[in-house]
């Protein structure tokens, strides 16, 4: 008995001493399905790297952005790895807030990263963040409703076709809305959709001299089309609907079409949560005779803040979490359909993944079509597809989003909303020094 | 003279009070109900009858050890309240029984600090915490919440102390009581109901404080407010899990509020009815 107690004591003491020696890194992340999966599978990393201990801080997206910004700007050093979007990466890298990832290891195969995604995370030839998963936007539609209405989705649908089809499918007595689109105000909510939509209508946020373009015919056409379409074929209270609200409506069979992030495809085709899982078709983001399909491109990425004192351990973890081996680990534990999408070319060449994920090919097509260096058919002084990659966009995008959301709710006219958006943008861009 | 109130009026008021109370409580009730649903049930529309599954609670517990943020919440809220009372009781005593020329101004100034938006001082406070090594520490957060709630503590105690006749304290002094004896043996026992309601209200305020508790912590000192926010999702539906996390976070304070409602109501209505 005494011997057992002694052995137990020695074991506990050694475990304690070992834990005390392990280097602890703190990872700030968001509560997305793929991120949670990574957290659950992280044992694989700690087993391979027993000298590194992982602490997770999961925060709501906007809180995370604010917390991490405060910490990096004040050099607080609270985080060793941060989860950020491709909007922040180039801006933060230029401000020397992030460390370049140049020790990902020989097996990492950086050339396997999708070129569009890699390009958005590279500044002056250096990779400042590694993509964990990526997305573009596409049309998700109900094949049964299309068939019933005698419609066939074209290979490259135009907005005119989408408008006509949505009105034809709408059956409000049966609770079916022809189309569900984002209306909730926010730079990452309705403005993501409307910016991509305006790109596809041939518009842009700013001209080469940073003059806002809300007084131009393209924005007028975009907004008139959007507001009228949502009035005729959209759900009630659409001005409060964001990604999650539309996801619920679509999963419940209340939308004929939904144009949103490609990552939604894995949710709507999941029979556990979606009533229409076996009736979903996919098509590329519409255009308006421009061959511009919105250029929506987003990725959640792992980066190391410049204030981290444990950069080597952090980079080791990033290399593990964004590697091909990690994708295989997910597939072995939870099936290929659960593999983090939109980051590696090899995934889209994997026959097992293509078989398990019916949305794989349309996702790749959407991501390949997106070019954030040329978001509009007209010349622009900025990069970014569904956003403008300047620090002022968060605030300005949300202000404009509120004006457009009010127009959708019928609280103001499209013309008034556009005029107010133009005035607000000119004011902000002048204040920030873009307009001389 | 009290007015005679008819039985019908009484019943009417009782029903109205119940309706208002249920309306106010309904969001909390629905959160609790949703926590016992599966995710598909949670999104499938309004229903007051859950399937009774505990899977969201298991999921929440498997991702986050509830006990750690719970203990942090207890330590931070109780610690900051006790500290605030230690500072607030003597301050309120002096303001109530030996008011000076500027007492009213000081009281108003203290209250005015509550009107300032917290975000205005986020960066300076963050820098101070960084330099003093207080980021992600329970001590730092306890002191911070004490300072935030101190104006309310002083104001509440000042209001209660003003209700106590100064002659009683004078009598104690005449009998030879020292300042310490006067506060501890005469004033405090008489003000126990007021101190108790101040204590309870401040524990609730500190428990629910989310701006600083989320922004000044990461792992070690993160309380239940950080625990809840970790279940909010921008992409994907986690309503049942979020409801389970919220229920776990509010349950202790809800239970405490239930058992101490008499003191709370007394404290909040003190001086309102003469």
UniProtKB/TrEMBL annotation, chain A:
Residues 1-19 form the signal peptide. Its main location: periplasm. GO terms for cellular component: periplasmic space. Transmembrane segments: none annotated. Keywords: Periplasm, Signal. It comes from the Bacteria. It holds the Pfam family SBP_bac_1. It is found in: Periplasm. PANTHER family: ARABINOSE-BINDING PROTEIN-RELATED, DIACETYLCHITOBIOSE BINDING PROTEIN DASA. Belongs to the bacterial solute-binding protein 1 family. This is Sugar ABC transporter substrate-binding protein. The lineage of its organism: Bacteria, Pseudomonadati, Pseudomonadota, Alphaproteobacteria, Hyphomicrobiales.
TrEMBL record, chain B:
InterPro entries: BP-dep_ABC_trans_perm, MetI-like, MetI-like_sf. This is Sugar ABC transporter permease. It is found in: Cell membrane. Residues 70-260 form the ABC transmembrane type-1 domain. The chain crosses the membrane at residues 12-36, 70-94, 106-129, 141-161, 183-205, 238-259. Belongs to the binding-protein-dependent transport system permease family. Keywords: Cell membrane, Membrane, Transmembrane, Transmembrane helix, Transport. It is a multi-pass membrane protein. It comes from the Bacteria. The keyword Glycoprotein does not apply. One of its GO terms (biological process) is transmembrane transport. Its main location: membrane. GO terms for cellular component: plasma membrane. Pfam families: BPD_transp_1.
């Amino acid at each position: 008995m005494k011997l057992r107690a002694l052995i137990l004591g020695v074991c506990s003491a050694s475990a304690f001493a070992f834990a005390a020696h392990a280097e602890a890194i703190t990872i700030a992340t968001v509560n997305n399905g793929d991120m949670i999966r990574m957290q659950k599978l992280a044992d694989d990393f700690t087993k391979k790297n027993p000298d590194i201990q992982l602490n997770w801080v999961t925060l709501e997206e906007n809180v995370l952005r604010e917390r991490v910004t405060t910490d990096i700007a004040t050099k607080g050093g609270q985080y060793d790895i941060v989860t950020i979007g491709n909007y922040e990466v180039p801006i933060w890298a230029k401000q020397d807030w992030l460390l370049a990832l140049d020790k990902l290891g020989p097996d990492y195969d950086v050339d396997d990263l999708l070129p569009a995604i890699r390009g958005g995370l590279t500044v002056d030839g250096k990779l400042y963040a590694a993509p964990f998963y990526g997305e573009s936007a596409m049309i998700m539609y109900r094949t049964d409703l299309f068939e019933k209405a005698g419609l066939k989705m074209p290979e490259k649908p135009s907005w005119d076709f989408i408008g006509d089809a949505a009105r034809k499918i709408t059956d409000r007595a049966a609770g079916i809305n022809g189309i569900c689109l984002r209306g909730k105000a926010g730079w990452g909510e309705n403005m993501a959709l409307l910016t991509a939509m305006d790109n596809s209508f041939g518009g842009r946020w700013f001209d080469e001299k940073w003059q806002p373009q809300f007084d131009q015919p393209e924005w007028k056409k975009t907004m008139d089309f959007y507001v009228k379409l949502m009035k005729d074929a959209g759900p009630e209270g659409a001005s409060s609907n964001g990604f999650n609200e539309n996801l619920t409506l679509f999963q419940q069979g209340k939308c004929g079409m939904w144009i949103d992030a490609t990552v939604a495809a894995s949710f709507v085709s999941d029979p556990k949560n979606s009533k229409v899982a076996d009736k979903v078709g996919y098509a590329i983001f519409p255009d308006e005779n421009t061959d511009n399909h919105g250029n929506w491109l987003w990725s959640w990425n792992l980066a190391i803040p410049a204030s981290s004192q444990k950069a080597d351990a952090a980079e080791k973890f990033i290399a593990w979490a964004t590697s091909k081996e990690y994708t295989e680990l997910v597939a072995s534990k939870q099936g290929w359909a659960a593999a983090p999408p939109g980051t590696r070319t090899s995934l889209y060449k994997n026959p097992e993944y293509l078989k398990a994920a019916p949305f794989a090919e349309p996702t790749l097509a959407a991501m390949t079509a997106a070019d954030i260096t040329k978001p509009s058919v007209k010349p622009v002084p900025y990069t970014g597809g569904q956003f403008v990659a300047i620090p002022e966009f968060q605030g300005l995008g949300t202000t404009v989003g509120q004006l457009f959301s009010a127009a959708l709710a019928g609280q103001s006219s499209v013309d008034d909303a556009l005029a107010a958006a133009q005035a607000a943008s000119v004011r902000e861009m002048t204040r920030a020094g873009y307009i001389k | 003279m009290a007015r005679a109130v008819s039985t019908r009026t009484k019943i009417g008021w009782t029903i109205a009070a119940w309706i208002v109370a249920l309306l106010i409580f309904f969001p909390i009730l629905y959160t609790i109900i949703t926590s016992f649903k599966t995710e598909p049930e949670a999104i499938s529309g309004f229903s007051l009858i859950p399937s009774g599954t505990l899977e969201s609670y298991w999921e929440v517990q498997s991702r986050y050890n509830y006990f750690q943020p719970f203990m942090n919440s207890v330590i931070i809220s109780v610690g900051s309240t006790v500290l605030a009372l230690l500072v607030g009781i003597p301050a309120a005593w002096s303001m109530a029984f030996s008011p000076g020329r500027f007492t009213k101004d000081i009281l108003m100034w203290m209250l005015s600090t509550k009107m300032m938006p917290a975000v205005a001082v986020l960066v300076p406070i963050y820098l101070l915490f960084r330099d003093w090594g207080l980021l992600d520490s329970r001590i730092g957060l306890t002191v911070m919440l004490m300072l935030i709630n101190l104006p309310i503590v002083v104001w509440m105690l000042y209001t209660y102390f003003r209700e106590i006749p100064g002659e009683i304290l004078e009598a104690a002094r005449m009998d030879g009581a020292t300042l310490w004896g006067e506060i501890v043996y005469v004033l405090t026992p008489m003000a126990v109901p007021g101190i108790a309601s101040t204590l309870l209200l401040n524990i609730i305020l500190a428990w629910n404080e989310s701006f600083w508790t989320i922004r000044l912590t990461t792992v070690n000192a993160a309380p239940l407010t950080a625990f809840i926010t970790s279940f909010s999702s921008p992409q994907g539906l986690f309503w049942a899990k979020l409801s389970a996390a919220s229920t776990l976070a509010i349950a202790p304070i809800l239970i405490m509020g239930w058992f101490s409602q008499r003191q709370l109501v007394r404290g909040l209505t003190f001086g309102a009815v003469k």
